[in-house]
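Tip: read the tokens left to right.
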């Protein structure tokens, strides 16, 4: 059940990292 949360957190982190890279 917590696997989904971990996956979501990792996905969110990747998205934030890409946003910073774009800047």
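Filled-in amino acids:
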């Amino acid at each position: 059940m917590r696997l989904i949360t971990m996956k979501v957190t990792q996905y969110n982190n990747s998205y934030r990292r890409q946003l910073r890279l774009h800047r």
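The chain has one helix and no strands. The mean pLDDT is 89.
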